[in-house]
Amino acid sequence: MKTLKSLIYLSKGNLPSKMAHTVQIAKMAQAFSQKIKNFELVTAGDAFSAIQGMNSEFQNWYGLHHKFKLVRLPIHIKFRYPFPHNYENQIFYKVAILYACLKSPSVVYTRTPAIADILLKIGVPVLWEWHEPIPEESKSFYQKIFAYKNLLGVVTTLPQLAENYIDNGLLKNKILVAANAVDLKNFLPYQDKQLARKELSIYQEDKIVVYSGHLYEYKGIPTILETARLLPEYKFVLVGGWADDVQKVQAACQKIGLSNITLVGHVHQTKLASYLYAADVLILPTSKYWDLAGATCPLKLFDYMVSRRPIVASALPTIMTVARDQQNAILAEPDDPISFKEAILSLFENPVLANTIAECAFQEVQNLTWDNRAEQVLQFITERLQEVDEDVVSYRKSFIKYIKQKVFSRLDNYLPSLQSSQVR
Question: Mind telling me which SUPFAM superfamilies this protein's record contains (predicted)?
Fold first, then answer.
């Protein structure tokens, strides 16, 4: 029986960052590290951070409770963290791939298509996590990835995405649907509403609706602003967002005369819980007009569930794989401020309903932890390893062969041009 002896997680290189996907990467890495002795998470860095590896600042940023091997490849001389939202570095990709090949782990895990593509060409066994549908204009690229024998499988978060991949050629036995999760420890100790508000200097008597996450329009920010206009006696607290986006929303509030919106900006994972505990209602107004609305089930939903506060969320099919109307949440029509207003009022007017759905969500999320998700993924990897040929998981020869092919290919292109120049 083949065993999973080592695992390397190659990120996009942008940790730490305010991007939500990096939270998922960091949490999954922490969970993997508790179950596999030889585990490494690889990201970009500079000379100083490469020496530090996992430091307290990185831990606090993501609310990590355990140190693990964090490899920060020094491709920058000096870098000011966090990484910007559009960070992408081809040099990091190449160095990270070389690093993984030289380490020869049992499996390489990644969420980055460019990294997965090159690793698969080399012959490295890869488990790829992906949360987006296959775009029509790039079908051939993804279908090529799905066809590699050394692609152990694809991990995704929604059955809708799994069907999309299967329709594009991925074998059913190579797909694992594993919902996103939550780190329960980040919400301990539990804070009652009064304590959380005292800590954050929020008035105890205020009726507070909290949103956490980025401030992009497709996240439903226009819906929040219009709902706030319809509910002037309620306070809306928005936690998160890039500095530029915070300024844009502030300007929008001033333009329409909104005074009941508070913009907090980005906070570390360790502080997020206090804002959720301070809420009367938590809001998730994802827009149906977002091109990825059919592929998203936000991390914030799981954070909301563990906070024991009632949730009002957009009635999107993907969100409804977790949220059920009148059971563990109240669902409102996406992009409809009146629907969100009525949902919020129903919770304030019916505290029994509010407490019931909040408690139901809390109980259900207890099993949706990163540890449990990592266990699912590792079991899937082990099963997939049994089904691949030995030469697929022994890739040193494949790596050398790939390098030779690249060298000879360049020589083949170089020699004709050299000969023609000599003739001239």
Answer: UDP-Glycosyltransferase/glycogen phosphorylase
pTM assigned to the model: 0.90
By the 8 A CB rule, do 352 and 326 touch? no
Sheet of 311-314, strand order: 261-265, 235-239, 208-212, 281-284, 311-314, 330-332
pLDDT digits 0-9 by tens, 167-187: 999 999 999 999 999 999 999
Rounded Cα gap, residues 286 and 212, in angstroms: 12
* 296: DSSP letter: -
- Beta partners for residue 46, in sequence order: 76
Query: Which domains does the chain possess?
Result: 6-181+370-393 (3.40.50.2000), 185-365 (3.40.50.2000)
| DSSP tag of 84 | P
Strand-pair category, 208-212 with 175-177: unpaired
The reply to whether omega before 222 is within 30° of 0 (cis) is no
Cα first-last separation, the chain? 62
